[in-house]
Description:
The protein is mainly α. It has a domain at 234-388. The chain contains 20 helices and no strands. The relative contact order is 0.10. The model is unreliable at 252-257 and 382-388 (pLDDT under 50).
Amino acid sequence: MKCKPLNITMPFIEKHRVLLLHLALGVLFRYCVMLMGHNFDFESYVIVGDIVSQFGNVYARTSRYNYGPLFSCVMGLFYAVAKNLPHPIFFYRVFIVGLLTCADVGIALFIRKKCGRAAAVLFFLNPVSIIITGYHNQFDNIAVFIALAAIRFYNTENRFTKKDILFIALMSLSLITKHIVVFFFFWLLLKKELPLKKRCAFVVVPSFLFLLSFLPFFHGAGQDGIINNVFLYRSFNNMPLLQPLIWLVHQGGWLVNRSGGRFYFPLFIILVCAAGYIFRKKDAETSLLLYLVCLTAFSSAVANQYLAIPLVSLFVLTKYSRLAYVFFMSIYLAVEANGLHIQRLHALPFIGVYCDWAYSLACFILFLVILKYAAAETPGIRPEITGH
Protein backbone atom coordinates (compact mmCIF):
# COMPACT_ATOMS: atom_id res chain seq x y z
CA MET A 1 0.00 0.00 0.00
CA LYS A 2 1.47 3.31 -1.14
CA CYS A 3 1.49 6.23 1.25
CA LYS A 4 0.31 9.49 -0.22
CA PRO A 5 2.79 12.34 0.24
CA LEU A 6 1.67 14.93 2.73
CA ASN A 7 0.79 18.22 1.05
CA ILE A 8 1.26 20.76 3.81
CA THR A 9 2.18 23.71 1.60
CA MET A 10 -1.19 24.50 0.08
CA PRO A 11 -3.23 24.21 3.33
CA PHE A 12 -0.73 26.52 5.04
CA ILE A 13 -0.98 29.09 2.23
CA GLU A 14 -4.77 28.79 2.20
CA LYS A 15 -5.01 29.26 5.95
CA HIS A 16 -2.63 32.22 6.09
CA ARG A 17 -3.19 33.79 2.68
CA VAL A 18 -4.27 37.17 4.05
CA LEU A 19 -1.28 37.34 6.37
CA LEU A 20 1.07 36.26 3.59
CA LEU A 21 -0.42 38.93 1.31
CA HIS A 22 0.32 41.61 3.89
CA LEU A 23 3.82 40.22 4.32
CA ALA A 24 4.41 40.33 0.56
CA LEU A 25 3.10 43.90 0.36
CA GLY A 26 5.34 45.05 3.20
CA VAL A 27 8.40 43.52 1.57
CA LEU A 28 7.43 44.95 -1.83
CA PHE A 29 6.91 48.46 -0.40
CA ARG A 30 10.34 48.37 1.26
CA TYR A 31 12.06 47.45 -1.99
CA CYS A 32 10.04 50.01 -3.96
CA VAL A 33 11.18 52.71 -1.55
CA MET A 34 14.75 51.43 -1.94
CA LEU A 35 14.52 52.15 -5.66
CA MET A 36 13.63 55.80 -4.98
CA GLY A 37 17.22 56.65 -4.10
CA HIS A 38 19.50 56.76 -1.07
CA ASN A 39 21.14 59.20 1.30
CA PHE A 40 24.41 59.67 3.17
CA ASP A 41 23.89 56.53 5.27
CA PHE A 42 24.04 54.11 2.37
CA GLU A 43 27.08 55.87 0.94
CA SER A 44 28.72 55.18 4.31
CA TYR A 45 27.65 51.54 4.12
CA VAL A 46 29.39 51.16 0.77
CA ILE A 47 32.61 52.53 2.26
CA VAL A 48 32.32 50.27 5.32
CA GLY A 49 31.42 47.18 3.28
CA ASP A 50 34.38 47.72 0.98
CA ILE A 51 36.82 48.12 3.88
CA VAL A 52 35.60 45.11 5.84
CA SER A 53 35.37 42.87 2.77
CA GLN A 54 39.14 43.45 2.42
CA PHE A 55 39.62 42.63 6.15
CA GLY A 56 40.54 46.24 6.89
CA ASN A 57 40.07 48.00 10.23
CA VAL A 58 36.90 50.01 9.72
CA TYR A 59 37.59 52.26 12.72
CA ALA A 60 41.03 53.15 11.37
CA ARG A 61 40.05 53.82 7.78
CA THR A 62 36.80 55.81 8.05
CA SER A 63 34.98 58.05 10.51
CA ARG A 64 31.60 57.10 9.04
CA TYR A 65 30.90 54.07 11.23
CA ASN A 66 29.93 54.94 14.81
CA TYR A 67 28.69 51.64 16.26
CA GLY A 68 29.81 48.26 17.56
CA PRO A 69 31.65 46.03 15.08
CA LEU A 70 28.95 43.40 14.51
CA PHE A 71 26.98 45.07 11.73
CA SER A 72 30.17 46.15 9.98
CA CYS A 73 31.05 42.45 9.71
CA VAL A 74 27.62 41.77 8.23
CA MET A 75 28.13 44.56 5.70
CA GLY A 76 31.55 43.20 4.84
CA LEU A 77 30.07 39.77 4.16
CA PHE A 78 27.25 41.21 2.04
CA TYR A 79 29.70 43.36 0.07
CA ALA A 80 32.04 40.42 -0.54
CA VAL A 81 29.15 38.36 -1.95
CA ALA A 82 27.71 41.25 -3.98
CA LYS A 83 31.09 41.95 -5.62
CA ASN A 84 30.74 38.67 -7.50
CA LEU A 85 27.31 39.56 -8.88
CA PRO A 86 26.26 41.87 -11.72
CA HIS A 87 25.37 45.34 -10.40
CA PRO A 88 27.14 44.70 -7.07
CA ILE A 89 26.04 47.91 -5.30
CA PHE A 90 22.40 47.18 -6.14
CA PHE A 91 22.56 43.65 -4.75
CA TYR A 92 24.56 44.84 -1.75
CA ARG A 93 21.64 47.09 -0.86
CA VAL A 94 19.13 44.32 -1.61
CA PHE A 95 20.87 42.15 0.99
CA ILE A 96 20.85 44.92 3.59
CA VAL A 97 17.18 45.77 3.06
CA GLY A 98 16.34 42.05 3.21
CA LEU A 99 18.02 41.69 6.61
CA LEU A 100 16.34 44.83 7.98
CA THR A 101 12.99 43.57 6.67
CA CYS A 102 13.52 40.31 8.58
CA ALA A 103 13.98 42.37 11.76
CA ASP A 104 10.72 44.21 11.01
CA VAL A 105 9.00 40.84 10.58
CA GLY A 106 10.37 39.73 13.96
CA ILE A 107 9.06 42.88 15.64
CA ALA A 108 5.68 42.39 13.93
CA LEU A 109 5.51 38.85 15.35
CA PHE A 110 6.21 40.26 18.82
CA ILE A 111 3.37 42.76 18.37
CA ARG A 112 1.07 40.02 17.08
CA LYS A 113 1.69 37.96 20.21
CA LYS A 114 0.88 40.94 22.44
CA CYS A 115 -1.87 42.74 20.55
CA GLY A 116 -3.16 40.51 17.74
CA ARG A 117 -2.86 40.25 13.99
CA ALA A 118 -4.33 43.65 13.09
CA ALA A 119 -1.73 45.56 15.11
CA ALA A 120 1.09 43.44 13.66
CA VAL A 121 -0.08 44.06 10.09
CA LEU A 122 -0.49 47.77 10.75
CA PHE A 123 3.04 47.92 12.11
CA PHE A 124 4.55 46.04 9.17
CA LEU A 125 2.76 48.27 6.67
CA ASN A 126 3.32 51.58 8.44
CA PRO A 127 5.22 54.09 6.26
CA VAL A 128 7.73 55.05 8.97
CA SER A 129 9.14 51.50 9.16
CA ILE A 130 8.96 51.12 5.39
CA ILE A 131 10.89 54.33 4.73
CA ILE A 132 13.51 53.81 7.46
CA THR A 133 14.13 50.21 6.39
CA GLY A 134 13.83 50.64 2.63
CA TYR A 135 15.29 54.11 2.09
CA HIS A 136 17.45 54.99 5.09
CA ASN A 137 18.59 51.39 5.61
CA GLN A 138 19.35 52.09 9.27
CA PHE A 139 19.65 49.04 11.51
CA ASP A 140 18.20 50.28 14.82
CA ASN A 141 15.37 47.78 14.31
CA ILE A 142 17.82 44.86 14.50
CA ALA A 143 19.09 45.99 17.91
CA VAL A 144 15.50 46.54 19.07
CA PHE A 145 14.38 43.11 17.85
CA ILE A 146 17.27 41.36 19.62
CA ALA A 147 16.44 43.21 22.86
CA LEU A 148 12.79 42.14 22.54
CA ALA A 149 13.96 38.56 22.10
CA ALA A 150 16.19 38.91 25.17
CA ILE A 151 13.42 40.17 27.44
CA ARG A 152 11.54 36.88 26.94
CA PHE A 153 14.23 35.22 29.06
CA TYR A 154 14.17 37.76 31.89
CA ASN A 155 14.13 35.62 35.01
CA THR A 156 13.76 36.73 38.64
CA GLU A 157 14.60 33.37 40.24
CA ASN A 158 17.39 33.49 42.77
CA ARG A 159 19.51 30.86 41.01
CA PHE A 160 21.07 31.29 37.59
CA THR A 161 19.48 29.23 34.80
CA LYS A 162 19.72 28.85 31.02
CA LYS A 163 17.24 31.72 30.73
CA ASP A 164 19.71 34.07 32.37
CA ILE A 165 22.49 33.00 30.01
CA LEU A 166 20.22 33.61 27.03
CA PHE A 167 19.13 36.98 28.40
CA ILE A 168 22.72 38.10 28.91
CA ALA A 169 23.82 36.75 25.51
CA LEU A 170 21.01 38.46 23.59
CA MET A 171 21.31 41.75 25.46
CA SER A 172 25.03 41.70 24.73
CA LEU A 173 24.32 41.02 21.07
CA SER A 174 21.85 43.91 20.93
CA LEU A 175 24.39 46.24 22.52
CA ILE A 176 27.18 45.16 20.18
CA THR A 177 24.87 45.63 17.17
CA LYS A 178 23.92 49.19 18.14
CA HIS A 179 24.11 50.66 21.61
CA ILE A 180 20.43 51.53 21.92
CA VAL A 181 19.94 49.60 25.17
CA VAL A 182 23.02 51.03 26.90
CA PHE A 183 21.02 52.99 29.50
CA PHE A 184 18.51 50.17 29.99
CA PHE A 185 21.09 48.39 32.14
CA PHE A 186 20.70 51.18 34.70
CA TRP A 187 16.96 50.48 34.67
CA LEU A 188 17.74 46.84 35.43
CA LEU A 189 19.82 47.88 38.43
CA LEU A 190 16.69 49.42 39.93
CA LYS A 191 14.63 46.20 39.65
CA LYS A 192 14.23 45.08 43.26
CA GLU A 193 12.59 41.79 42.22
CA LEU A 194 15.95 40.78 40.75
CA PRO A 195 18.55 39.27 43.12
CA LEU A 196 21.54 41.55 43.51
CA LYS A 197 23.91 39.05 41.89
CA LYS A 198 21.70 38.96 38.79
CA ARG A 199 21.46 42.72 38.62
CA CYS A 200 25.24 42.91 38.64
CA ALA A 201 25.60 40.13 36.05
CA PHE A 202 22.97 41.64 33.75
CA VAL A 203 24.84 44.94 33.74
CA VAL A 204 28.50 43.95 33.94
CA VAL A 205 28.66 41.05 31.47
CA PRO A 206 27.00 42.77 28.44
CA SER A 207 29.00 45.94 29.09
CA PHE A 208 32.23 43.94 29.28
CA LEU A 209 31.44 42.01 26.10
CA PHE A 210 30.58 45.27 24.32
CA LEU A 211 33.97 46.73 25.23
CA LEU A 212 35.68 43.45 24.41
CA SER A 213 34.18 43.45 20.90
CA PHE A 214 36.38 46.47 20.04
CA LEU A 215 39.60 44.78 21.15
CA PRO A 216 40.56 43.33 17.71
CA PHE A 217 40.31 46.85 16.23
CA PHE A 218 41.91 48.77 19.12
CA HIS A 219 45.34 49.34 17.64
CA GLY A 220 47.00 52.10 15.65
CA ALA A 221 44.57 54.57 14.12
CA GLY A 222 41.70 52.26 15.12
CA GLN A 223 42.16 53.30 18.74
CA ASP A 224 41.49 56.98 17.97
CA GLY A 225 38.63 56.02 15.65
CA ILE A 226 36.88 53.98 18.34
CA ILE A 227 37.29 56.64 21.03
CA ASN A 228 36.35 59.64 18.89
CA ASN A 229 33.84 58.17 16.43
CA VAL A 230 32.03 55.71 18.72
CA PHE A 231 32.30 56.71 22.38
CA LEU A 232 32.62 60.48 21.89
CA TYR A 233 30.38 60.70 18.84
CA ARG A 234 27.40 63.04 19.08
CA SER A 235 24.79 63.29 16.34
CA PHE A 236 22.61 66.37 15.69
CA ASN A 237 22.63 68.27 18.98
CA ASN A 238 18.99 69.32 18.74
CA MET A 239 17.01 67.90 21.74
CA PRO A 240 13.63 68.35 20.01
CA LEU A 241 11.52 67.96 23.17
CA LEU A 242 12.94 71.20 24.57
CA GLN A 243 13.28 73.16 21.33
CA PRO A 244 9.81 74.81 21.43
CA LEU A 245 10.41 75.96 25.01
CA ILE A 246 13.89 77.23 24.20
CA TRP A 247 12.59 79.03 21.13
CA LEU A 248 9.79 80.70 23.07
CA VAL A 249 11.94 81.77 26.01
CA HIS A 250 15.06 82.75 24.09
CA GLN A 251 13.57 83.85 20.77
CA GLY A 252 14.94 81.34 18.32
CA GLY A 253 17.64 79.53 20.22
CA TRP A 254 19.75 82.17 22.00
CA LEU A 255 20.52 79.69 24.77
CA VAL A 256 21.61 77.06 22.26
CA ASN A 257 23.82 79.51 20.40
CA ARG A 258 25.36 80.71 23.66
CA SER A 259 25.97 77.26 25.17
CA GLY A 260 26.34 75.21 21.99
CA GLY A 261 23.74 72.87 23.47
CA ARG A 262 26.40 71.43 25.78
CA PHE A 263 23.87 70.71 28.49
CA TYR A 264 21.69 68.57 26.18
CA PHE A 265 23.55 65.26 26.53
CA PRO A 266 23.93 65.37 30.35
CA LEU A 267 20.25 66.35 30.60
CA PHE A 268 19.31 63.45 28.33
CA ILE A 269 21.14 60.99 30.61
CA ILE A 270 19.53 62.48 33.72
CA LEU A 271 16.02 62.26 32.22
CA VAL A 272 16.43 58.67 31.00
CA CYS A 273 17.81 57.57 34.37
CA ALA A 274 15.06 59.42 36.24
CA ALA A 275 12.47 57.65 34.06
CA GLY A 276 14.08 54.34 35.02
CA TYR A 277 13.46 55.18 38.67
CA ILE A 278 9.87 56.23 37.99
CA PHE A 279 9.14 53.01 36.08
CA ARG A 280 11.17 50.71 38.33
CA LYS A 281 8.07 48.78 39.45
CA LYS A 282 6.89 47.99 35.93
CA ASP A 283 7.44 44.48 34.67
CA ALA A 284 10.57 43.95 32.58
CA GLU A 285 8.80 43.83 29.22
CA THR A 286 6.87 47.03 29.85
CA SER A 287 10.05 48.63 31.15
CA LEU A 288 11.91 47.87 27.92
CA LEU A 289 9.07 49.27 25.81
CA LEU A 290 8.88 52.42 27.93
CA TYR A 291 12.66 52.72 27.79
CA LEU A 292 12.54 52.89 23.98
CA VAL A 293 9.94 55.67 24.25
CA CYS A 294 12.01 57.60 26.80
CA LEU A 295 15.22 57.12 24.83
CA THR A 296 13.70 58.82 21.79
CA ALA A 297 11.61 61.45 23.59
CA PHE A 298 14.47 62.71 25.78
CA SER A 299 17.25 62.23 23.24
CA SER A 300 19.75 65.05 22.88
CA ALA A 301 20.14 64.12 19.22
CA VAL A 302 17.27 62.97 17.01
CA ALA A 303 17.66 62.12 13.32
CA ASN A 304 15.21 60.50 10.90
CA GLN A 305 16.18 56.90 11.67
CA TYR A 306 15.52 57.36 15.40
CA LEU A 307 11.82 57.75 14.64
CA ALA A 308 11.61 53.97 14.13
CA ILE A 309 12.98 53.08 17.58
CA PRO A 310 9.78 53.61 19.66
CA LEU A 311 7.35 52.19 17.08
CA VAL A 312 7.07 48.75 18.71
CA SER A 313 6.34 50.45 22.04
CA LEU A 314 3.61 52.63 20.56
CA PHE A 315 1.94 49.65 18.89
CA VAL A 316 1.94 47.60 22.10
CA LEU A 317 1.34 50.30 24.71
CA THR A 318 -1.09 52.65 22.98
CA LYS A 319 -4.18 52.74 20.81
CA TYR A 320 -4.33 56.23 19.38
CA SER A 321 -0.88 57.73 19.99
CA ARG A 322 0.59 55.28 17.50
CA LEU A 323 -1.80 56.47 14.78
CA ALA A 324 -0.96 60.14 15.37
CA TYR A 325 2.77 59.40 15.48
CA VAL A 326 2.77 57.31 12.30
CA PHE A 327 0.58 59.80 10.42
CA PHE A 328 2.64 62.89 11.17
CA MET A 329 6.05 61.24 10.91
CA SER A 330 5.11 59.59 7.61
CA ILE A 331 4.38 63.01 6.13
CA TYR A 332 7.68 64.31 7.45
CA LEU A 333 9.76 61.42 6.07
CA ALA A 334 8.03 61.72 2.69
CA VAL A 335 8.75 65.44 2.39
CA GLU A 336 12.03 66.05 4.23
CA ALA A 337 15.21 66.54 2.22
CA ASN A 338 17.03 63.59 3.83
CA GLY A 339 13.91 61.46 3.43
CA LEU A 340 12.01 60.68 0.25
CA HIS A 341 11.95 64.39 -0.66
CA ILE A 342 8.76 64.11 -2.73
CA GLN A 343 8.66 67.45 -4.52
CA ARG A 344 4.89 67.63 -5.06
CA LEU A 345 4.26 67.55 -1.32
CA HIS A 346 6.30 70.71 -0.90
CA ALA A 347 3.39 72.60 -2.44
CA LEU A 348 1.30 71.87 0.66
CA PRO A 349 0.80 74.95 2.86
CA PHE A 350 3.05 75.30 5.94
CA ILE A 351 5.01 72.16 5.01
CA GLY A 352 8.36 73.91 5.48
CA VAL A 353 7.44 75.05 8.99
CA TYR A 354 6.12 71.58 9.76
CA CYS A 355 9.44 69.97 8.79
CA ASP A 356 11.25 72.35 11.14
CA TRP A 357 9.15 71.19 14.09
CA ALA A 358 8.41 67.54 13.19
CA TYR A 359 10.94 66.07 15.62
CA SER A 360 9.49 68.17 18.43
CA LEU A 361 6.00 66.91 17.57
CA ALA A 362 7.23 63.31 17.61
CA CYS A 363 8.90 63.75 20.99
CA PHE A 364 5.84 65.51 22.39
CA ILE A 365 3.61 62.57 21.41
CA LEU A 366 6.07 60.20 23.06
CA PHE A 367 6.22 62.43 26.14
CA LEU A 368 2.44 62.16 26.52
CA VAL A 369 2.80 58.37 26.53
CA ILE A 370 5.45 58.66 29.26
CA LEU A 371 3.18 60.87 31.37
CA LYS A 372 0.30 58.42 30.94
CA TYR A 373 2.32 55.48 32.16
CA ALA A 374 3.98 57.47 34.93
CA ALA A 375 0.50 58.24 36.30
CA ALA A 376 -0.68 54.61 36.04
CA GLU A 377 -0.32 52.38 39.07
CA THR A 378 -0.58 48.95 37.45
CA PRO A 379 2.75 47.23 36.68
CA GLY A 380 1.85 45.43 33.43
CA ILE A 381 0.95 46.28 29.85
CA ARG A 382 -2.68 45.26 29.45
CA PRO A 383 -4.32 47.30 32.26
CA GLU A 384 -2.74 50.45 30.89
CA ILE A 385 -3.99 50.30 27.30
CA THR A 386 -6.71 52.88 27.81
CA GLY A 387 -6.77 54.62 24.47
CA HIS A 388 -4.51 57.63 24.97
